[in-house]
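Notes from hallway chat w/ T.B., transcribed later so I don't forget. T.B. wanted the structure written out for a chain they're using in a teaching module, and asked if we could keep both sequence and structure tokens in one place. Agreed to drop them here.
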Amino acid sequence: MASCCATSAATPGPLRQGLLALAHGQPVYEDLTRRMLRARGLLRADGVPTAKGRARAAEEALDEARWQELRRAPQLSELAARDDGLTRIEDILTRDQIAAIDARLGPRGAVA
């Protein structure tokens, strides 16, 4: 499949896990992950996410929700096997495919 977003890049594993924790309102305990988040301006020293951190966390949560929905879509199930936990879905699917997934997710990528 052609990628829809040539500029997207995989998020390093610890950073992605930290962002997903923030998206779910959970604290980040791992020191490496906290340092990575702080170095990128995503987390304050007291462990509270910055506005930029909340935005990035929401992006990662949406990406994760899209992957989950992809796994439920029989016509695209073979692409779900490409989920390595690091690759953004925009690197695998076309804009049209992502729009179809977003439509199934509902407003703003909400997951039921």
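Follow-up for T.B.: Helices lie at 13-23, 31-39, 51-72, 77-80, 95-105. Might be a good example for the class.
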